[in-house]
Task: inverse folding
């Protein structure tokens, strides 16, 4: 049986609709596409006629609902009209050495964007250097087109005539066109006239000489005017090897939502996007960048870029420039650097973690939470050599009060990158040593109670244990300074995990219970209970240990009070059980104390009565 | 009556949600769940664990993931009017995926888990292709080569993919399969839509670049293998939950003889890699570090200067490390895990993977990373 190979049938009208309606996020881009085509055509003509200046004229009429884009560039020959205007998706080369693929604007896909605003597109074009009147090409949104030679000659170049749909007539307004052109084309070097007025073509900020203080000031003032807020500084982002030009404005604060920081990215002076994705490093949020590059490769819609090697190189270069700036601040202006660090704390800490030079530049400026309050690492390093770190916020809380009472500085390593930075500081400074701190470790390091004190504790141990066990703790008797702290609380690193495992086991059955049983073999389940360490050097504890019978009956209630007090010292959240236990224990102790007091008073009164 | 304000578990959950992903966030969720238990707040206890299960998945904290999920599943069985079990099915797949390489889960127990998952998925009207895919991955990870083809065909023929991974992840599993059966050309072919980024997700093609080294090396396509490093390493550097792929990059650098770049990467990842709580990830990470050190010893490196955490067991305050000593340390860690996994799997598959890397190291290739 013979097989015939056949082409797909393409509904060109449908394809045009798909391209024009779904490729772009806004219809505004048809202006950019047509201007870009004009600019490219002028550039092509300049190659053949170097003295040629060229310009683009945009004429519109609200009444007629038309816009005409006129350029005096190289124009199109009949063959090029066929290749560039009538063949969607064809590869684009010019035979005269002017390779259109080297230009940003490429007829073919870009011109389709016009079908977002018109149903019919007319192009009048005449090729430079060819003896002809020119050609009229008429394309329609249903996918059909006609080509005819003109009877009367037109100027060399191209005119694109748009008869706007009624829904798109707003584009014919001068102000609307001007706004769109300002957004996309203001830095284009080709002059553009809108309805007879030159209104565009600002100098790009990257063309100013920032080593000249006047130009720098001018740029900063211009930024403040345009953005409604001042910039602290401006940094050059030039890298000639990459065809990269740009500036970064250094901001004194972050926008409310830092992820919405705007950076304007241009490709060959034409605006592409203000959402550059990963083109800038995460820590660059303290800047607002304006970047122009010819190394970036735009996607078909030219609203974003391919993340290829060129993209990576531009990213590296921009990161390097900003990084150099931060390093310079570390030497010349540490106050500003401190302020910038505080703006993007997590991102900068991550950078310091990853980059040794940046780390060395900023570590002394970074601030950390410690058991004696917040302090910069520089302040800590001046007076101390042992870096004690608790790995989680909970562990820090469980040791902070005791550490503070003993004058020991313990760092809270529980926030993102804090512990890593402290470890790195130790690794890079041979005079420092690291001492990881776990709540249990600190308890183990406390002094032992005397034999007599341990013996005195025995009669009330059971009562204290019974009081604390429902609260998830066990007692231990130690002796430590300062003596005015009656008790401290500590948990092991896996306490909560063990508790969670038990709760899950209680909730599960069958296969899942077996899986949890298997998982339990990897944990030390003795870790679950917290430890309440009673201080035998404290007067309250000493009173509790006096064998006069007072402790008995009251020791459990006192232990509960001390437990809650220790939790509060450790900044632990209290559960309902704990607050209830505290309230009941306090009431019981008060009642007993008052009864005792009353008995004593009555006894005193009785002793004082006459005749007794 | 005196009343202190009790912290609410829901407040801790909210706090944890605002934290960056990592062990601190996990600890906060754990704390919230324990607090909710103590306060008898079942809804908060469930919510904290549901969040914890997700956070633990992204940070490879398998034990937390299992414990949290088992609680939620149990709660949904006991209180079906309060918690919808159907909502847990996505997490079910995550947990089952994580458990397949858990050293403490015996092979037979895991097979029962897949059987139960199949029943549960059917009950909730979900496609069983997700289970078939897990079964295939399980056989790959445990070296059950005689069961691979059948499992692959069953998965490919099962068209009911509701509840399955995204298309990019499924495509990545196909790549895994062809790599595992030694069909290198087909593996590369299947990977093409991934590495061209036409198909992508949060973890793909990040992981694909790590997988592709081996077929590319086998076919002698060294430049393409270098491209896997150039494009792939930055995608996983600094990302949590992708340490296995980091280890693949370390192994490649060792095979390529790129020791300075390898040590730089090792220095960066060592602390996180060594603190992984999940033995399967630890195994792969140690294999990568060992490969690098083994190659350095082969090349006659006596010492290397590294900036490592003071918590590293062989920490040197001057940063100068004896390479053979480091190699011996990681070799012994790796041997221990190889033995334990082989014991669990009932074969020598895991040890053989180390032997395969050794064969590549023996070739003493020198591949330049400079490409333009």
Result:
């Amino acid at each position: 049986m013979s097989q015939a190979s056949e082409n797909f049938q393409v509904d060109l009208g449908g394809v045009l609709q798909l391209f024009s309606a779904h490729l772009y996020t806004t219809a505004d881009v048809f202006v950019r596409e047509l201007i870009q085509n004009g600019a490219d055509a002028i550039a092509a003509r300049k190659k053949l006629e170097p003295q040629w200046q060229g310009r683009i004229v945009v004429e519109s009429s609200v009444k007629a609902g038309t816009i005409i884009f006129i350029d005096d560039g190289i124009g199109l020959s009949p063959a090029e009209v066929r290749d560039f205007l009538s063949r969607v998706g064809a590869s684009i080369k010019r035979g005269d050495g002017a390779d259109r693929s080297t230009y940003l604007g490429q007829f073919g896909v870009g011109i389709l964007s016009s079908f977002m605003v018109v149903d019919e597109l007319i192009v009048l074009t005449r090729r430079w250097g060819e003896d002809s009147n020119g050609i009229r090409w008429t394309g329609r949104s249903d996918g059909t087109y006609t080509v005819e030679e003109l009877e009367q000659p037109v100027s060399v170049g191209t005119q694109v005539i748009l008869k706007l749909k009624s829904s798109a007539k707003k584009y014919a307004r001068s102000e609307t066109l001007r706004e769109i052109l300002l957004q996309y084309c203001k830095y284009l070097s080709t002059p553009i006239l809108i309805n007879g007025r030159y209104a565009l073509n600002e100098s790009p900020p990257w063309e100013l000489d920032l080593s000249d203080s006047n130009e720098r000031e001018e740029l900063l003032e211009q930024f403040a005017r345009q953005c409604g807020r001042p910039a602290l500084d401006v940094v050059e982002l030039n890298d000639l090897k990459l065809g990269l030009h740009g500036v970064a404005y250094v901001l004194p604060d972050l926008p409310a939502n830092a992820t919405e920081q705007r950076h304007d990215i241009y490709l060959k002076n034409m605006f592409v996007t203000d959402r550059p994705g990963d083109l800038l490093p995460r820590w660059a949020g303290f800047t607002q960048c304006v970047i122009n590059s010819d190394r970036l490769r735009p996607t078909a819609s030219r609203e974003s870029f391919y993340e290829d090697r060129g993209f990576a190189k531009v990213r590296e270069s921009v990161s390097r420039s900003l990084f150099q700036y931060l390093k310079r601040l570390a030497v010349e202006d540490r106050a500003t650097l401190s302020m910038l660090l505080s703006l993007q704390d997590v991102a900068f800490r991550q950078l310091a973690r990853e980059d040794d030079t940046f780390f060395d530049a900023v570590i002394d400026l970074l601030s950390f939470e410690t058991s004696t309050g917040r302090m910069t690492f520089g302040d800590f390093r001046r007076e101390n050599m042992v870096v004690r770190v608790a790995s989680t916020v909970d562990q820090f809380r469980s040791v902070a009060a005791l550490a503070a009472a003993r004058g020991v500085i313990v760092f809270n390593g529980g926030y993102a990158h804090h512990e890593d930075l402290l470890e790195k500081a130790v690794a890079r400074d041979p005079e420092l040593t690291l001492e990881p701190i776990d709540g249990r470790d600190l308890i183990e390091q406390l002094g032992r109670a005397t034999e007599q004190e341990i013996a005195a504790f025995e009669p009330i141990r059971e009562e204290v244990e019974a009081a604390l066990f429902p609260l998830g703790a066990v007692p231990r008797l130690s002796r430590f300074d300062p003596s005015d702290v009656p008790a401290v609380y500590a948990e092991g690193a896996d306490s909560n995990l063990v508790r969670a495992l038990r709760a899950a086991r209680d909730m599960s059955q069958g296969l899942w219970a077996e899986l949890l049983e298997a998982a339990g073999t990897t944990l030390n389940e003795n870790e679950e209970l917290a430890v309440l360490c009673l201080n035998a050097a404290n007067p309250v504890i000493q009173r509790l240990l006096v064998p006069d019978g007072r402790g008995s009956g009251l020791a459990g209630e006192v232990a509960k009070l001390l437990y809650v007090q220790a939790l509060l010292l450790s900044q632990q959240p209290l559960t309902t059980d704990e607050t209830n236990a505290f309230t009941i224990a306090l009431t019981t102790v008060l009642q007993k104390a008052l009864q005792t007091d009353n008995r004593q008073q009555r006894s005193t009164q009785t002793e004082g009565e006459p005749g007794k | 009556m005196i009343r202190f304000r009790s912290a609410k578990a829901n407040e801790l959950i909210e706090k944890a949600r605002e934290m960056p992903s990592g062990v601190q966030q996990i600890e906060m969720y754990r704390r919230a769940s324990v607090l909710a238990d103590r306060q008898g707040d079942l809804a908060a206890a469930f919510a904290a664990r549901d969040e914890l299960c997700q956070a633990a998945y992204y940070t490879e904290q398998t034990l937390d993931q299992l414990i949290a999920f088992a609680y939620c599943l149990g709660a949904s069985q006991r209180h079906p009017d309060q918690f919808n079990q159907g909502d847990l099915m996505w997490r079910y797949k995550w947990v089952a995926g994580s458990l397949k390489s858990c050293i403490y889960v015996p092979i037979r127990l895991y097979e029962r888990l897949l059987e139960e998952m199949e029943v549960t998925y059917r009950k909730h009207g979900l496609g069983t292709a997700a289970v078939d895919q897990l079964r295939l991955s399980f056989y790959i990870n445990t070296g059950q080569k005689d069961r691979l083809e059948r499992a692959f065909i069953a998965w490919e023929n099962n068209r009911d993919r509701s509840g399955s991974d995204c298309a990019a992840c499924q495509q990545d599993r196909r790549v895994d399969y062809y790599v595992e059966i030694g069909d290198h050309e087909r593996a590369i072919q299947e990977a093409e839509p991934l590495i061209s980024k036409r198909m992508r997700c949060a973890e793909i093609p990040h992981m694909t670049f790590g997988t592709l080294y081996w077929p590319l090396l086998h076919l002698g396509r060294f430049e393409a293998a270098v491209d896997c490093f150039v494009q792939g390493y930055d995608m996983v550097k600094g990302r949590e939950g992708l340490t296995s792929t980091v280890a693949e990059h370390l192994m490649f650098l060792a095979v390529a003889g790129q020791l300075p770049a390898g040590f730089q990467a090792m220095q960066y990842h060592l602390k996180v890699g060594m603190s992984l709580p999940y033995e399967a990830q630890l195994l792969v990470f140690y294999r990568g570090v060992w490969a690098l050190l083994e190659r350095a010893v082969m090349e006659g490196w006596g010492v290397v200067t590294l900036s490592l955490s003071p918590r590293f067991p062989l920490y040197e305050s001057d940063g100068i490390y004896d390479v053979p000593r480091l190699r011996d340390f990681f070799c012994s860690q790796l041997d221990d895990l190889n033995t334990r996994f082989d014991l669990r799997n009932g074969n020598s598959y895991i040890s053989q993977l180390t032997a395969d890397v050794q064969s590549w190291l023996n070739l003493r290739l020198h591949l330049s990373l400079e490409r333009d």
About this structure: Residues 205-328 of chain A form a domain with the Ribosomal Protein S5; domain 2 fold (CATH 3.30.230.80). The two ends of chain A are 134 Å apart (CA to CA).
